[in-house]
Amino acid sequence: MKKQGYNVSRYAGISILLGGVLFIIATLMHPPATNPWTGHHVIAMISDMLVYWQWDHSLMLAAVILWLGGLSMSESFAVNRPAARMAARLFVAALTIWVLVLAMELTTLPSLALEWHRVDAGTAALGAGLFAFGIMAGDFAMMLAWIGIVLLGFSLLAEEAMKPAIAWAGIAAGAWGAVGIPAALLLPEWSIMIYPVTSGPVFLWTLVLGIWMVTRPRA
């Protein structure tokens, strides 16, 4: 690999690892709100934890920018492969959706929460709908990212840039994670258990990818 491509790959790996660590912290800080149909309850809580809510979602914003931004540089370490190029575009699409969702959660939901005790039924329904939209849009963004991991795994496998077992693990984990998204949306009461089981393995694989990008020797 040329020096420039190697450096970009290394910086992308650092970005993935930093973003991944921040993502874990922000997720652990976040209230357990994975069911899109619990908007009335969650919005009512926001006013009691407004500063905490803003800090957590600001941290989440930084996390997804670093994590998905690093993954979007996949063309630099899986070159000349249509699958890698498509994966990079899916990561960018996922990042775009996440930024819009988090912007809404940092502005619209807190504004509604501060007035929640005196809004009319129509406004309350709109607020609950916005919350459901945010949950589902974020889920769809993650599904795009997991499909991107599948494509990236195939690209790395074809290039023989990574040990086949690790590449296949990424492909399998990405597919499992993508299937878990609609499963969680169809079974919202179980979503808080479905997400860790289905998305956890592929998320951890992205951290393995980041370590590999940072530590691998220059070709």
From TrEMBL:
<feature type="transmembrane region" description="Helical">
    <location>
        <begin position="52"/>
        <end position="74"/>
    </location>
</feature>
<feature type="transmembrane region" description="Helical">
    <location>
        <begin position="124"/>
        <end position="154"/>
    </location>
</feature>
<feature type="transmembrane region" description="Helical">
    <location>
        <begin position="12"/>
        <end position="32"/>
    </location>
</feature>
<protein>
    <recommendedName>
        <fullName>DUF4386 family protein</fullName>
    </recommendedName>
</protein>
<feature type="transmembrane region" description="Helical">
    <location>
        <begin position="86"/>
        <end position="104"/>
    </location>
</feature>
<feature type="transmembrane region" description="Helical">
    <location>
        <begin position="166"/>
        <end position="187"/>
    </location>
</feature>
<keyword id="KW-0812">Transmembrane</keyword>
<keyword id="KW-1133">Transmembrane helix</keyword>
<feature type="transmembrane region" description="Helical">
    <location>
        <begin position="193"/>
        <end position="214"/>
    </location>
</feature>
<keyword id="KW-0472">Membrane</keyword>
